[in-house]
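Slide 14.
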Amino acid sequence: METFLFGAIAITVLVGLDQVGLWAERKGWVYWRKGKRGDAGGGMLGVMDELLSPAKSHTLEEIANKQHGRVDVTVGDGGWVDLDGGRAHLPAVGRQ
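Slide 15: predicted structure.
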């Protein structure tokens, strides 16, 4: 009888902890059962992909550079930009 009682108490405690986890997930505090899952193997596959396909690594670097890069119109051809005054000067094409 004691084993049955212990089993019933253990199941009740586990169900209660599960309900607390689900409640915390609804509050946005944790990912419990229905939340976003991390891909544990993603890091290893990324390393293997980089070793086997260096062109993909180069492509990802170029995309990142283009997203964070800028065009500097002040380099060459005598153009300039005045950010404070809101003015820019670009020389006409074909004229020096």
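Speaker note: The first strand starts at residue 80 and ends at 82.
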